[in-house]
């Protein structure tokens, strides 16, 4: 098609357009991933225990922001050490492991705020707002001094990448993230530091 358009436009001086047959390709960008040390810095930079608990929950369960805000107190199963994710993308429920550190942080948080239904509530007992969480993360990122162009969703990306780097099977990570298609999960193989560092480097076999 490109050759035909070139022929018409440049050789025959006709204004012949075929762009409508080939829509612009979507940009393909790799996710921003934070190291474990950077995640820790961000969480620790929160002086407010509620803010700290929210960011720790998102990272600790690899949650989407909306999934975190939909969590209820009953979704935290301390007996089985699981977090139940409901109303997730695709309307599929799933479970993710509950970290011991996160459980202790949530208990400390609840002693202060004593929420009634949602795990993280607004001032009138409704769901906490997503914009507030985005601001919390933005302020924590700035305070931590980390220069990466990260967002709240970067915590989920980081969780998945850290699981992959620890040797977790990618199909298990797919289940943990609630991905319908394995191809969506496989993007983390492209940002995993441990996987990239294990690749042979041909230039190192040369004398330059």
Helicity range: 40-55%
Number of strands: 3
Question: Order of helices and strands, N to C?
Answer: HHHHEEEHHHHHH
CATH architecture group name: Orthogonal Bundle
* Low-pLDDT segments: none
* CATH homologous superfamily descriptor: Intergrase catalytic core
Number of helices: 10
Main beta-sheet annotation:
3 strands, antiparallel
Through-space gap between termini: 44 Å
Strand % is under 5%
Task: Label the overall shape.
Answer: globular
Radius of gyration: 23 Å
| Widest sheet, order of strands | 1-2-3
Mean pLDDT across the residues is: 84
Features:
globular; hpI Integrase, Chain A; mainly alpha; three-stranded antiparallel β-sheet; 208 residues
Task: Describe what you observe in this structure.
By secondary structure, this protein is mainly α. The chain has a single domain (36-193), classed as hpI Integrase, Chain A, CATH 1.10.443. It has ten helices and three strands. The chain has helices at 2-11, 36-44, 49-61, 65-70, 100-113, 130-144, 153-165, 170-177, 182-185, 193-198; strands spanning 76-77, 82-85, 94-97. A hairpin with a 4-residue loop joins strand 1 and strand 2. Helix 2 (36-44) packs antiparallel against helix 3 and helix 3 (49-61) packs across helix 7 (153-165). The mean pLDDT is 84.
């Amino acid at each position: 098609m490109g050759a035909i358009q070139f022929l018409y436009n440049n050789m025959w001086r006709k204004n012949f357009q075929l762009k409508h047959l080939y829509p612009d390709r979507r940009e393909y960008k790799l996710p921003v991933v934070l190291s474990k040390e950077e995640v820790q810095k961000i969480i620790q930079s929160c002086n407010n225990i509620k803010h700290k608990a929210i960011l720790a929950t998102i990272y600790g369960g690899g949650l989407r922001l909306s999934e975190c805000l939909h969590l209820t107190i009953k979704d935290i199963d301390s007996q089985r050490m699981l977090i139940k994710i409901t109303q997730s993308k695709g309307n599929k429920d799933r479970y993710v492991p509950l970290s011991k550190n996160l459980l202790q942080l949530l208990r400390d948080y609840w002693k202060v705020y004593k929420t009634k239904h949602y795990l993280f509530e607004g001032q009138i007992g409704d769901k906490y707002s997503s914009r507030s969480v985005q601001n919390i993360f933005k302020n924590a990122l700035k305070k931590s001094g980390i220069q990466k162009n990260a967002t709240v969703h970067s915590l989920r990306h980081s969780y998945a990448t850290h699981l992959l780097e620890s040797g977790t099977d990618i199909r298990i990570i797919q289940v943990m993230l609630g991905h319908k298609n394995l191809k969506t999960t496989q993007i983390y193989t492209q940002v995993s530091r441990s996987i990239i560092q294990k690749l042979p480097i041909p230039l190192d076999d040369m004398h330059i």
